[in-house]
Fold this sequence. Notes:
The chain is built from eight helices and six strands. It is α+β, with helices and mostly antiparallel strands.
Amino acid sequence: MPESDPVTPRGAVAAPDEPAYKALTRHLPEPRFVPLPGYARIDEARMLAQAETFYQTMARRRTTRHFSTDPVPRRLIELAILTAGTAPSGAHRQPWRFVAIDDPTLKARVRAAAEEEELKTYSERMTDEWREALHPLGTDHVKAHLTDAPWLVVLFAEKYGLRPDGSHRKNYYVDESVGIAAGLFVAAIHVMGLVTLTHTPNPMGFLRDALCRGTNEKAVLVMPVGYPRPDAQVPDLARLPLEAIVQWNA
């Protein structure tokens, strides 16, 4: 074979005018594309108004641990999860799995296990630096919100997929993909008029066992969802200004 012919490591020959890696997928079906659905360009004034309104709405979002026990319709939780599921993901693997819990007995079991782990964390695992960082938030190992809120939504990350024969299928950019989905879930909950918090008991392995999830999944967040109590409070904190979180060009 002439030296000028590009050859892939697997022996497939690429066309002269394309990178060698293109030959590695030539045996696969051609990707299918459809027109971008539902897009209609709007004028900049309306764009700005919508963006300002959305920002002002999200700027009112706060994390509270004071939940009302009032029931929340299941359909609202479904819609928040569906919204989270619109997130982009590495290779479109969609590696998020949500467990929605409104059973009081199961919520109590999750709370008991979480408080057991959190007591160990606050007593034994937590460094002084970590403890000082959390102090302004007023947190401790007692997690009443896990049973007060009408819903607990536990977000799992699928570390790898499972084929029908039990073999592993690699997922890509799992943490990034699941993080984006979590953000969309939180935004959806806020926009619909509910509150949530992103609780991260440490460690979280007990959740996989308690909720009968596979060994290919890891718990990422526990998010109680509901209405705030009439006397709900939040820490007196401020968000960073724009100039502290953005750089324009180099």
